[in-house]
Write a structure and sequence with these properties.
The chain is an alpha+beta fold. It is 33% helix and 42% strand. Strands 3, 4, 6, 8 and 9 form a five-stranded antiparallel sheet that branches. A four-stranded mixed sheet has the order 1-5-7-2, with helices on both faces. The chain starts with a strand and ends with a strand.
Length: 133
Amino acid sequence: MEILITAEPLDERGAAARVSDPGAGAVVTFAGTVRNHFEGRPVLAVEYEAYRPMAERKLRDVAEEAVRRHGATAAAVHHRVGRLEVGEASVVIAVSAPHRAEAFAACREIIDRLKEVVPIWKREVFADGAEWR
């Protein structure tokens, strides 16, 4: 299990390489990127903050549970903090599993649970101000 919270740009291929396993017939990756709009307003950038010790612990718990529940082999979850421009990856998840169905299911569970329980906060920056989400 690899968990990373960093201010550095994320590497989707690197995350996939970290979960590679000879017994895995599938590696699924997900990259969440900063979009240029939110609720009809143009977004200039997004700023992420995290309470690192708790966020890392929660990310590990979420990933371990998803791997266990879906019979996956391994997972890597990498999340950015700091200011991100439109198009940059804010989160990268890679999951390996014996078959694609397990890999897809575990990956989806990780991103869904991450948004629910991990203490990472997002501030959307607009031309006319900013809002925490």
